[in-house]
Design a protein that fits this description.
The chain is mainly α. The chain is built from 5 helices and 3 strands. It has a 3-stranded antiparallel sheet.
Length: 123
Amino acid sequence: MAEGGRGNESPREESLSTDEILEILSNYQRRGVIKHLRDAPGQVHSIDEIINYIKELEQKRYGESPGEDHLLSVLVHVHGPKLEDGGLVDYDIPNREIHYYPNAKVERLLTKIEATVEEFEEE
């Protein structure tokens, strides 16, 4: 996975289709990762920070959480490639960092999805 050399915004800001954005946001863990990256200060985050966030997400959702090795594997091999292909992140594996590149379209749709999920959970 490439090291980050981009500016502050995703280079695919305009080129991501609605379907591509929905595919990225179709998984609750990916939505959680993007939400965490969006809300946390800075654009560079440790992989361990993201794993801990997913662990908390799993604990809240299921009352238990998979081990950190499993979560690392899922992050790097499942969610990471989708986020990276969407231009939202770059991984710096040797330094165990994730570089986040905000995308206004993705974040707007994420906000709408979050509101809808909350509404459904209240019913």
